[in-house]
Specification:
Elements: E1 3-9, E2 12-18, E3 21-23, E4 26-29, E5 35-39, E6 42-48, H1 50-71, H2 77-92, E7 100-108, E8 113-119, E9 125-127, E10 130-134, H3 137-147, H4 154-171, E11 179-185, E12 188-192
Antiparallel strand pairs: 1-2, 1-10, 2-11, 3-4, 5-6, 6-7, 7-8, 8-9, 11-12
Amino acid sequence: METSFALTGKGYVIVAADTTAARSIVKMKVDEDKIKELGTHLLMAYSGEPGDTVQFAEYVERNIRLYQIRNLYPLRPPAAASWIRRSLAQSLRSRNPYSVNLLLGGYDQAENKPNLYWIDYLGSVVEVPFAAHGYGSYFALSLLDKYHDPEAPLEEGLATLKRCLDEVTKRLVVSPSKYMVKVVDKDGVREVEI
């Protein structure tokens, strides 16, 4: 029942995820932050099995931080996506694979452009202009396909995201009640209200 969305625009990536932590029919928490900051210019929204998601997100966060400490510079978004894909693929071949779907958004300071990656639990990765995971994706992807503009300013991108959230709230039976929205651009990561 988890839902996450992301889209790129002119110099930014917007990432949104619901804040509900649930298992089966039980809602355990309504203020869970499912968007992990992996550095000053990198965000990851995660969804999947409750135990796997937090554990894998912390594993990724700490290893990306370790890379920065060892090499004195952070991983760029394409390299981070590649490392995460490899980690999921290796996990898949172990006795306890992670069941985690991810949206990785970042601002590449070397190329001065936003990057967004859709990653699933099988280790598939693809760079996309917009993405969604969860039941909400059934309603949001068509709206994102129609209204997404890669050259849109931030306000227009937030309006497009708002359309998606409103559609999910209106049409999905088990729609999440609250979302956390974060933006990453040349100035870093910040939370925004929608």
